[in-house]
Structures are given as C-alpha cells and as structure tokens.
Amino acid sequence: MTTQLTGQKMFLAGKWVNGDRIIEVRDPQDNSIIDTVPAASAKDMVNCIEEAKDGAEIAASMPVHERMKVINVAADYIEQNLEKYARTIATESSKTIREASKEVQRCVQTLRISAEEARRIHGETIPFDQMPGSENRVGYYYRFPIGIIGAITPFNDPLNLVAHKVGPAIASGNAIIVKPATVTPLSALLLAEAFAYAGLPPKVLSVITGYGNEIGDVLVTHPAVRMISFTGGVEVGEKITRKAGLKKISMELGSNSPVIVLEDSDIDDAVESTVSGAFYAAGQNCLSVQRIYIQESILYSFQTKFVERTNQYCVGDKQLEITDMGPLITEKEAIRVENLVNEAIEKGALLLTGGKRNGAFYLPTVLTNVPKNCTIATDEIFGPVVLLYSVPDLDEAIRLSNEVNYGLQAGIFTKSIDKAHRAIAKMDVGGIMINDSSDYRIDSMPFGGVKKSGLGREGIKFSVQEMTEPKVVCFKLSDY
Are residues 55 and 105 in the same domain? Predict the structure, then answer.
C-alpha cells in the first residue's frame, strides 16, 4: 500500500492542532516513513490538562443516554470504516492485516460494551439502622466520576487498548488524555476521529502525540490528573508509581505466561492453541504463551507436532491475507530477542526451530532444555519465542509455573475436572484458561494480574469501577 505523507495533527481538547516539531511514523516491515505526527511539548501537555479540567465538568454533566449515544456512534463509524482502520494498524504496527481486522472488530465491541456499562453504574442503599442510635437515619451511596484520567498506551494493540481506556472513561463521565505509543500513534488518532464524528463535547478527550520523556512526566505528576491508566513494561510502570503521587493507578505490566499440557489432553488442540498463542502479533502480546510444561509421557508427541505446526507459519508481508506473522515493531526489538535466544543457547538451551533474524523479522522460535539462569526463562520475552519443558506431573508444572515474578494469565489442557480445579486453586495468576492457551481474552472480563504483572483490573465494567468513586448520602430524619 502506498501511503501519502499528509502530516497528521494531534487531538488537543477537541481540536486538531499541529506542533513545532514532528515525529516520523515508520512501517516496521521496511522502515519506510508512512506519516508524521506532532511531537508535543511539556507546555502542550500542561495546556491540555488545563482544558481537561473543563472537560471533566462537561463529561460529568452528560446524561447517561448522551454518553451511550456518543460511544455507539463512534463504534458505528469505526465499523463502517473497518478497512481504513485495519490498514492503518497493519501499516504502523507489527500486526498482519488479518490480526489488524480482528483488532478493529474487537474495538467496536469494546466501545459497545462501554456504552452498555454506562447504564449500569449503580449504587446501593445502606441500612444505617444496623448501628444502635441510628434508627432515624436512611441513605445510600452512588458512584461519581473521578475527573481527569491520564492514559498511556502501548504499540501492540494500538487501537483496542486505547479504546479500553477511552470507552470506560467516557461511559463513567470522565475526561481522558491519551498519550499513545510513539511508534504507533495513528490508530489512536483515528479513534479520536471517531469520537469527534460522534459529537463528543470538546475538551473531554485528547490524544497527545509525543515522546514519553518530554510529556509523560507532566501527565503522570500533574495534581489535576486523578488517575493514571498504564499498559506497558514493568520498569516504566515502577517509575510511574514512584512519580504519580496521591492518585489512582491502574497498571497492566505484562507477563511470562505458562501453559500446562497433561497426558489426558487433546494434544492436537493443545498444539494448535499454543502455537497461535505464542506467535500471534509476533509474540508481542502480554498474554503470549512463553513457557509450556508438558507431561513427560506425551513430550515427544507434543514437541514433534508443535515444531511441525510452527514451521508451517507463514512469515512475511503484513498486508497479505496469507501471512500469519509479520515483523517485530522495530529492528532494535528483533535484535533484543535475538540476543536473548543466543544467550540461552550459549548456556545450554536446544534450538528446535527458528532462531533467525532478518531486519525486524524474527522467525517463530522454539527452545527446550532452557536453564533457569537465562534471562529468557524468567523475564518477559515479548517476541516470537516459546520454551518447552518436560514435567513428571501437575504439581511440578504448577510449582514451576509460579516460580517467576509475573502472574497475568495461564492455561491448562486436561480432561480432568479435578486437575483443572487444582490448577485453578494453586496457580498464582489473574486468570486461568482451561483447555485454552493463556492468550485467550474477551473484552468484558476482568483483566489483570498479580506480582509484577500489574495493579487493578481492566475490562469495561471493572475499568468503570476504577474510574469512579462511591459517595455516601445519609439523611437524619427528624420525624421518624
């Protein structure tokens, strides 16, 4: 696809504006420049926050039916322009056109769920007369929006993960400022386009493009911003928590996801599911299957089929329907993954397939016999690499699964309800998929992890809860 460099504008408080400097947006497939966006300054971010103060009041005063209408019209607009949105994702990110189309469809669903959840922000009555002396008191609580939300989003789902923050924020009556990933800002700007078309009042939404080290700290530390919703790496997440001060923080920080395959499982189904879970979006997915623990009695069969299926993966041009996997987001990231694999091999790991890089492309890679002292064994790979391990039984698989300092999601393949429930009880994760890979998710479920995988939960209903606070109302009755 030939892309004309139009020079995109950022969406500051409902207005499309330029900046004094630009950022080049490149296609990771060939490093070609596909467009430019403004490089916002710290002053731009301060101005944006000042405008968002008014936006928060406007958003809070919007009736629920108006919030619902705006969100639904935005969803309709995206659906009607699906190819445009998918092509943008597939051009600026690592995703193939098939993966990008799926993301657009999920974004539409995310927004429609957000519109529905707007009508479900409920409170409850409180029986104040449970305490002696309060027989003449009645009351309730309701939830109110917290104000301005700062959202910092990653490159790997450049549209839907933005929608996961914007949809609930608008549904719950908040203003929101989005700082999208520097390498994939175009999809987030397209989301702003949809909300502008839908008639969202000015100042409620901003999408500010720029470098994190220039505008991120302003967003994170400003006292008017009452919540930071961040999706990204642990190191950056920890820095944000130290800088943010007294405000709400929601963080999804990635994982090193384990999947257990027991001897009573459907091996073919487990192979198909885990191959997809390992290499979807070139493995640049917080839910990506990274470690597979296979019961030793079926190790050879599973390993043989897994490698065979991996070798069938079509790696190449993202824009072609036949392509299964494209490049990593930058050549630098591909080199990082290459170095991790080489370190593991030098320390004794066995390469079963893959292990080759060409620019930003890195072939789907399968390792076994990976020592514990390898970085790749304990940290998040965020690339198309999966590690296979042999285990004698379920208990050992659970023990090894829990050894790392992450706990987002996990999977287990078994036909035994007892074994499934044992894994559910003992695995230290935020979600466990039975007879599915760790990569499975729907947009309405609570999503988040334990340990270094994050704080709080996303998923529309649960994000709305994070983005609102309860206010207690109590009436003391004089004639009771």
Answer: yes
